[in-house]
Specification:
The chain has 55 residues and is mostly beta strands. The protein is built from no helices and two strands. It has a domain of 31 residues.
Amino acid sequence: MKWNYYEALNMPCPGGNGGVFTHINVKELTTARYDMAGKHLATVKTPVDIDLPFN
């Protein structure tokens, strides 16, 4: 899954599953940095293990 300020967050369901989410599990966080003109400066990928439950 990828998301930024210019694209809608897209969370498709695997085949045969419904659209009800109980949690999201994050394995990698990618951060991209840009200057004020929109020039790409750097990208950093950080391994994480986060499980966020939805109540």
